[in-house]
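Entry for pyridoxal-5'-phosphate complex. Fields follow.
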Amino acid sequence: MTSRPNLSKTIPFFNYKGAFTEREEEFVAIFRDLIRRGAFIQQSDLAAFELHLREYLGVKHAIGVGNATDGLVMAWRAAGLAPGDEIIFPSHTMVASPASVAHAGGTPVPVDCGDDHLIDPNAIEAAITPKTRAIMPVQLNGRTADMDRIQAIADRHGLFILEDSAQALGAKFKGKFAGTFGRAGVFSFYPAKILGCLGDGGAVVTNDDEIARRVLLLRDHGRNHDGEVVAWGFNSRLDNLQAALLDAQFREYGDIIAHRRMLAARYQENLAGLRQLHLPPAPGSEPGRFDVFQNYEIEAENRDALRESLSASGIGTLIQWGGKAVHQFAGLGFKANLPRTDLLFRRCLMLPMNLMVSPEDVDYISESIRAFYGA
Ligand SMILES: Cc1ncc(COP(=O)(O)O)c(C=O)c1O
């Protein structure tokens, strides 16, 4: 059970120090240029990044905001959430998803996930009450939920969809990008995200002119183009500097995604057949799906011992959200029975998956896992 591969390596789960070193000179040049132009808030670099995001996703509006959490709160407000409105969301998500609903005056209702760790459409239908107003799929781990089924449920019950696509820039379902299905979609540019900046950042995207108009107001103190305050707003604009750094990386976004999909295929090739593991769907294995692998989240028998063994081999792993789904945080007061999510959180583990990870690293990690199970 404990024999390890001979080769010794250190593979952190995510190496913040190394994440941007390759682009250091380029980023310093961008920083210098912005200082010399005095271009800090709502300047041309933000507009350029918003334009490129809009063009990439094929949406009418992309609005840079301070972070995805604020983006979600503003999107809910813009969509007119009213006190008492129930919003169905998957409990396997960051607490930011339901927190955004609560901050916008709604009531978040957690539901179970399916075997791909995303919201289970069957669970949505069962949670609908007369107060349900919307569904918030979370496009987790760089994968899009089954939007056909979710859209059909929403249509049947007169609900709208708002996507937490914080982890899924570039993921597609039947050729359509995550974040572009509902009334609005929200992305995060936290440094460890597939497209990350040097701090916090996010974007709200939408094809709905009214939502866009309101989010633009809300992110800038409720002020319109003329500086007239027409609503209680926030201060949550994507910094011009962060937008410029994102725009520089965005030019190579296709390559960035390709690297992650290559790593995922390698994990699959190396680990398929190990009965102790449940792996995410392999890239290219499902028609109509294009996953971008923000994370490579597996389920593993004897998870905690595996994690310790990998750590002893120099391999960093992570359990999402500090090891608890949202409904498991007692302080939040949810009384939900979500057996698939509870099972998942006894077994889930994320393996290293980012630009700094090489195919050889994946081989070493896979070999270490095989050694742990004596396979
Ligand atoms: C699924 C999900 N939703 C929301 C957020 C919040 O994003 P941000 O940190 O940009 O506010 C995150 C960030 O980790 C996330 O993973």
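NOTE: The longest helix spans residues 253-271.
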